Each structure stands twice: as C-alpha cells, then as structure tokens.
Amino acid sequence: MNNIIETLAPYALNFVIAVIIFIIGKYAAKILTSLFKKFLDKSNVNETLKVFLGNIVYGLLLIVVVLSALNQLGIQTTSFVAILGAIGLAVGLAFQGTLSNISAGVMIVIFRPINIGDFVEAGGVAGTIEEINLFNTIFKTPDNKVIIVSNSNIIGGNIINYSKKDTRRVDFVFGIGYEDDLKLAKNTLLEIVNDDKRVLQDPEPFVAVKELGDSSVNFVVRVWVKSEDYWGVHFDTMERVKLTFDNKGISIPYPQMDIHTNKIQ
Prior knowledge:
Layout: H1 2-42, H2 47-72, H3 78-94, H4 96-111, E1 119-122, E2 125-132, E3 136-140, E4 146-150, H5 151-155, E5 160-161, E6 167-176, H6 182-195, E7 206-212, E8 217-226, H7 230-248
Antiparallel strand pairs: 1-2, 1-5, 2-3, 3-4, 6-8, 7-8
C-alpha cells in the first residue's frame, strides 16, 4: 500500500499543480482580456471589433494555459499543437466563406466606409445601414424591407455612401420651348431655388443653358443642400417648376417630330 502511495504521490502533486495552473491561468486570461478591451475602449475602437478581438485574445491565452497545465502533468504538448494546427486548417478550409465574411466585417469596422444610419448602395442593394456584425450587414430599404448582405459582397464591390458628406448636390434638367422667353425661364428657375430656404448659398445655385435639344431648350440647374434635405428639395422643386411655368405661360415641351411632305404632281 505504501508503495502505491509513493508511486502515485508525484502524479497527484503534478495533478494538483496542473489544476492550480489552469484555475489561476484562466483567471489571469480574463484579467488580461479585460485590460485589452479597456485599451480598445480608449482607442475608440468599434464595439463589434472590440468584442471580436477580445474573444480571440482570450481564446489564445486559454490555449496557452491548457498547454501549460498538460505540460505539468508530463504530457508532451508538441503533438497537441500539431493536432490543433491541423484542426485549425480543416476548419479554415471548411468555413472559408464564413472566414472571408469575418475578415470583410473587420475591414468594414476598421476602415469605416459605411456606418450605422448611412444610406448606401453596396452589395447590389440600396438602403439605410441598421446593423454591421462580423458576418453580414443589415439594410433597411426605403419601403421598409430588411435585406441581409454578406460582408464579403460589400467589400468586394463598389460602395456608394450618400450620407458620408454633410452636403449633396441636386441636379435638374428642365426644358422649355424654342418660342418661350429664355431669360424669363432662367430668372424663374433662379427665383424658385433661391426661395427655398433649404438650398445653400455657398456654393450658390447654378442655372445655365445646357443644350439646344431636338424639341426643347434645356436648362441645367444645380443646387447644394444638406444631405438629409436631398429628396425633399428634389421633389418640391420639380413640383414648383411645373406650377410656376404654367402660371407664367412657359411651356415644357415633350419629344415630338415634325414631318413635312411634298406633294408629287
């Protein structure tokens, strides 16, 4: 009996030490991860990226703790490292698409081409960004549909962010008849845009003859507005131009073709 106790005593001691290493190491890993997250907080890192990086750091520290505990038990950890590497490679190959979405999500969070609340065109859809997570981005369309787009599709294509800047330019083209008063039409367009308080005066509104079309003289009108006023100014200006032109007798011609025939004697 004494021989058995003497034989098992070193193993029992190593087992106790290994358990202590695991408990203390796990506690230390949590503390270090918490300190790492606080560092990220001071660096104004996005919440999604902070959680993602925190989980990675904690996982790596926990692996070190487990390997240290196994080493205390006398188990060769070299083979475990090789096994973990093989498992990691297999998981990476199996979830290649998922990992690409995660890496794309991290890129979105770091470089911030889009932010929550922005109206953008990306990944083949257009809408307001409601959520950005590690795997996908959630859009809300103007007609209140929810569209979920994988992050890799967003990063892999063009991104048009309509909310990135504080101001946007609204462009119009209005046509009048050749028989209409050109100066009257130009002054009328300037009055309409200048009367709208949402239209910015710096840069000042621009009105000019764009082209002499087949059936109309076309004006280009360009005004700058705050991004949130874009569609309001667009729709209201279209309506006001039509009503004002009607009141002033300025025609808005539609495409037409005059055909002249010669009578054969």
